[in-house]
Amino acid sequence: MHLDKNNLAQSGRILPRLAKAALGTILLFGAGGMAIAQNMVVRSTGPSASSYPAGKKMGNNAKISLKAQDQVTILTKSGTRVLKGPGTFSLAQRTGTTSTASRRLSSFISNRGNSRARTGAVRAAGGATVETPNNPNIWFLDVTKGGKFCVADPDGLVVWRPDYTGSATASIVEPAEGNVTEIAWRKGNPLKAWPKDTLPVTNGASYRLLGSNVPQSVEVSFVVLQNQPADLNDAASMLIENGCTGQLDLLVETLKLNDEDAADQG
After folding, report:
1. Higher model confidence: residue 29 or residue 257?
2. CA dihedral for 30, 34, 39, 40, sign (positive or negative)
3. Is residue 239 classed as helix, strand or coil in its secondary structure?
4. pLDDT tens column, 186-225
5. Which domain holds residue 71?
6. CA pair distance 44, 92, nearest whole angstrom
7. Is residue 189 part of a domain?
8. Strand locations in the chain, DSSP E?
9. Has residue 230 been placed in a domain?
10. Does the residue 170 lie in any domain?
11. Pairing, β 168-174 against β 179-185
């Protein structure tokens, strides 16, 4: 994959062509947006977590009984819904616009038009709080995050950095031989193509990354998906099944309408 530097938009805005390349084959959209076949648990904590494991699918008439300290995040047609115990909740009680999740996911994946990456507060040197963008695409490899990383398009993998206010580099180390490959970003550019010619993107391949503006290195292990996700449930299921928790967390957080709208207190 060749990335023309002129095709990388400034301030974290990504042109449609690059987003499509990073995704490989964009998740399939229907006329009304992305299909969500069932309600699916994507995160669960508390005493009842074993009864509602991540990946569990439920119909719209399902009832969920939670104890104190329980919290279950469910992917629904209207976005994400967070249920907090104690209490019994019916998935049929939820109201909302069914296209909300589709619009948000479409923007999250393609980042087209006026869509911008959401920002989050981080601590800078001297204790000051600055705003940096969150990763705008689940298929962009965050140079600051380690763990298993699901790859949708091995030929179009892109490395993303959260701090693009200046120029930066990152060293990628191949653990077995210790070979080091360096990539560089220009000021204002958050994206860089993965050097696949020297570091193949294969299933199970592991690499250690150290960014010049990152406090510590991280180790990434690739999981190359055999099939492209067909819909939102499919995408979340693949991330769960393959242990790509960082991408799943990013997907869940991005789909949340907001804390107040997403939470039901028992």
Report:
1. 257
2. positive
3. helix
4. 999 999 999 999 999 999 999 999 988 788 899 999 999 9
5. 25-137+247-266
6. 20
7. no
8. 29-30, 33-34, 39-45, 57-58, 63-66, 71-76, 79-84, 87-90, 119-123, 129-133, 140-142, 147-151, 158-160, 168-174, 179-185, 191-193, 206-211, 218-224, 263-265
9. no
10. no
11. antiparallel
